[in-house]
Write a structure and sequence with these properties.
The structure is a single chain. The chain is of the alpha+beta class and 118 residues long. It is 24% helix and 26% strand. A 5-stranded mixed beta sheet has the order 2-3-1-4-5. Strand 2 (48-50) and strand 3 (53-59) form a beta hairpin.
């Protein structure tokens, strides 16, 4: 997984990428072709382990928030990517939904998807 955000974003990975990585890890942990501990060079170059998923956080000017997940098998790859565009506006609807639902919720609720089903 590759988590892209602006150069000024301090958290790595973003909350969205962390949540997705943890959920993917619950389904199946990543299979590494070469053990991290046997690498030649900085191990950090292979990303951080988050919930069984390797996550690379890229922080550069011109990104708002983008998340890319690459699933791979021999001779094939599936890439799924979400780009927020030039502003965080795509997240506003979800934030407003969460704010409206909060008064009726009890305890900790993780994931916007759980609010969509209620």
């Amino acid at each position: 997984m590759i988590d892209y955000a602006s150069a000024t974003k301090p958290d790595v990975p973003s909350g969205t990428a962390r949540e997705l990585a943890e959920r993917l890890g619950e389904v199946r942990a990543s299979e590494l072709g070469f053990p991290i501990e046997d690498l030649h060079g900085p191990q950090e170059a292979r990303g951080a382990g988050v919930g069984g998923t390797r996550v690379h956080s890229v922080r550069l000017p011109s990104f708002v928030v983008s998340t890319e997940v690459v699933f791979a098998a021999p001779d094939e790859r599936l890439t799924i990517r979400h780009d927020a565009g030039s502003s965080p506006e795509p997240y506003v609807a979800g934030t407003l939904l969460a704010a409206r639902k909060a008064p009726s919720m009890t305890g900790l609720t993780r994931g916007l998807d759980t609010l969509l089903t209620e």
